[in-house]
Structures are given as C-alpha cells and as structure tokens.
Design goal:
alpha+beta, five-stranded antiparallel beta sheet, 32% helix, 22% strand
C-alpha cells in the first residue's frame, strides 16, 4: 500500500513539474545500499575477462539523486549512446512535432502532361525519405497530369533518400524510382522477353544535377512533409541507424551546433560531450554515465509539454525489436543500446515502486560483448526485483498513440501552362 501511494504521488509530481535536472546541480541523494552492492557484483562480473574496472562506468539516478555508481563521472566510449545526444539536440532545435519539408517545383510550363523545363527538388534534411515516400510523390505528380520532364532533375538543399548520404546519389535513386527501367515481360509460348513499361512512370529526359542554390522556378507542384520528428527519432533509435543520425547532425548545422543544442537541452556544460560525430561510430565519442542519464532526463522534460514520453523516441523492451530483439531486458524498460568492436553500452529509464523513475547508464569495454549484454540485462532484473516493478507502468513511461499522418503530400498546382 505504501509503494502504491508513493508511486501515485510520483506520477502526479512528475506530470506537474517534470524531472529535476541531472546535471552538475543534481542532488546527491542517499545511496541505495542494495543497489550499490548489486553494482559492485556487476563490476566484479564484467572484469572477470581481465579488463580493468576503470574501463567500465555505471550510473543509477532517481529524482533524489544518485543511487549507486562506478566511474560514473568519467567519460568513456559510448558507441551509439551518442544518438541520445543527437536526439536531444534535434528535439531542442525543432521540437517533437517538426516535419521536414521537401518541395518539388518546376522551371518551365506544364502542358499536355509535359513539363518543358527542369524538375527541382528542394530538400530540408529529411533523414527518413525512403522509396515509399518517392512513390507517393510520384503518385501526387501524376495526379497533376505530369508524365514527362524534358529537362533535368535538379537537387537543391539537403536531400537524402534511402539513407544515402550524398545528394547526387539520392537524386539518382529518386529519378530511378520515378521512372523505373522496364521490367521483362514474357509473352507467347516461347516466352520472349519484352519490356513492360510502368504505366505510372514519370520520365525525366535529362540527368541529375546538384546545385548549391535553387534556380528560379515558375511555380510549385508538391510539398512533401516528413513524419513528425519524434516518429523519425523512434525509427532511428530502434534500429540505431547511423546514417539517419549523421543526416540529422548535418541538418542541425554540424557537430558543434549539435553538441551545443544537446548540452543546452540537458542543462549540461558542452565540454561534458566529447563527440566526433552524431552516430557514435568511433571510440572517440565519449560521455560519462552520468551525462547520458542527464540527456535522458532532459529529453523526458522536453517531451512532456507535448504530451509525449521518452517511449515515443526510444525502444521499449517487450514491445519494440530492432537492436533489443535478442535481449532479456525487463519489460517496459525504455532503452538505447550501443555497440562497437570492444564496447557494449545500455542506458535508459525504468519506473519502480521504490524510487519512481530511475535513469541508468551502463558502459563496458572489452572483447566479450555478449557477456557484457548478459550482465547488463541481469543487473536490471536484479534491481527491478529489489525495487519492485509497475506492470504496466504509468502513462508517462509508455508510448502515446497519436493520430496517423495519412496525407503528407500537399498539391500546389501553380505552374503556368504554355500557349496561354
């Protein structure tokens, strides 16, 4: 009864004021002796392979402050936990409901299904523009009556497709999707192969060209809107997509700006984020376990006013698959994984009866990655067994069910027709 009352009060308190910041001003709190013992056993287990204990970091934090830690303030390689910083910077910069806009315009008149000029695509950094989006775009353009472009396909701005990092390669993918090569079609008893043209193809006569500045246009055709940012971030984090993280970093204005925004959102000094990219590729990307927890807490506080939760941007054990599909993490735990050749990391949050929300970060270095993962999962189960689980957890720790975005192409028929 005492636990239930405590948890209910915590849910109400956090919904009203959010989590307290976990940066340098966080309260010291009272160490949980059972958690401290569990962490020591955990460190003893992961160092059995001969790696020094200094190569591992742990931080457990409730709203009162630190519960237990080991090397918690020491920057260590974090692999894809770097994406937690990229997520924080993206939300801080654009907000969770932001949509990246891809504009399609024309430099010439449109008449009888033919655009006599160039087709211009202006990207704004959508990291999740994939084949399905290109097909929807083609459908919208065909709905305007467009069948052929006599000029070039011009790419302007940050345009990416299918996680391809360069605009030229992305433009070529888009052109191929708009007008795929004829597929073989077998006819007659001898099965002669003859080309079967796609009746919905949009033919572009000229090549793909990437320009620094958008040329003058005669009008707009279609405005394509991405998924809401929080949905894009969820996809990035579930599968730990490195390309998406790097594209977001580019759109944020580069690494220094990404670090500045992440630090600002988490109320941390920028010097606490030792990063060389937005994806986590490379052991030079280093954060302390405490800093990772501060980033998670900051993300929660930023999402709460939008009636979203950290579960809307990170994987949830027992619900999502991706990088956690083979893990034995306690159900409903919100997590982000990280892996390099000799680095295995896990961080996130879980809601407990004893302490309410608890943020954790586990950083391990050494060759036996699967042993590290097993030890990480076991530690979380031990802690949850000690503190008590809430199943299911309160709404503040579960994904929301927002309305679906069924139409993301706006038709803008403003191109002048020739001969008029």
């Amino acid at each position: 009864m005492r636990f239930a009352s405590y948890s209910g009060m915590w849910v109400l308190w956090v919904l009203m004021v959010g989590f307290p910041p976990l940066g340098h001003t966080a309260l010291l709190g009272r160490v949980d002796l059972v958690a401290e013992t569990a962490v020591q056993h955990y460190i003893d287990g992961v160092v059995q392979g001969g790696e020094a204990s200094a190569r591992h970091g742990v931080w457990l934090q409730s709203e009162h402050g630190v519960l237990a830690h080991h090397q918690g303030n020491v920057p260590l390689p974090v692999a894809s936990l770097t994406k937690v910083a990229t997520t924080m910077a993206s939300l801080q910069t654009w907000g969770p409901m932001h949509q990246f806009v891809t504009m399609v315009e024309a430099t010439g008149p449109l008449q009888d299904g033919v655009l006599r000029g160039d087709l211009v695509v202006q990207g704004s950094g959508d990291p999740f523009f994939v084949t399905d989006d290109a097909l929807e775009l083609r459908r919208a353009l065909r709905g305007l009556g467009l069948k052929r472009v006599t000029g070039k396909l011009i790419i302007s701005g940050n345009f990416f497709m299918n996680f391809t990092p360069t605009s030229l390669a992305s433009g070529k993918l888009l052109k191929q999707t708009l007008a795929p090569p004829p597929a073989p079609r077998r006819t007659g008893k001898k099965r002669h192969a003859t080309p079967a043209a796609d009746p919905q193809a949009l033919i572009i006569d000229g090549p793909v060209e990437v320009v620094s500045f958008c040329p003058p246009t005669q009008g707009s055709l279609v405005r394509h809107r991405s998924l809401a940012l929080f949905k894009t971030l969820k996809r990035m984090n579930v599968y730990s997509n490195n390309a998406m993280a790097e594209m977001l970093t580019v759109s944020l204005g580069g690494l220094p700006q990404m670090v500045t925004q992440a630090a600002r959102g988490a109320r941390l000094p920028a010097v606490d984020l030792h990063l060389i990219n937005g994806s986590g590729l490379g052991p030079e990307n280093q954060l302390s376990a405490r800093t990772v927890c501060a980033l998670f807490s900051g993300i929660h506080n930023l999402l709460t006013p939008a009636k979203l939760t950290v579960a809307d941007v990170f994987p949830v054990a027992g619900t999502d698959r991706g990088t956690i599909r083979r893990r034995q993490i306690p159900a409903y735990t919100i997590v982000k994984t990280g892996t390099l050749r000799k680095v295995a990391t896990l961080a996130g949050g879980m809601f407990t009866r004893a302490h309410g929300p608890v943020w954790f970060a586990l950083i391990n270095q050494g060759p036996n990655l699967w042993n590290f993962r097993t030890q990480q999962d076991s530690l979380l189960h031990n802690l949850m067994g000690h503190w008590g689980a809430m199943a299911p957890p309160p709404a503040m720790f579960t994904p929301t069910i927002p309305g679906t975005e069924t139409i993301r192409n706006d038709i803008l028929p403003r191109v002048k027709a020739s001969g008029g």
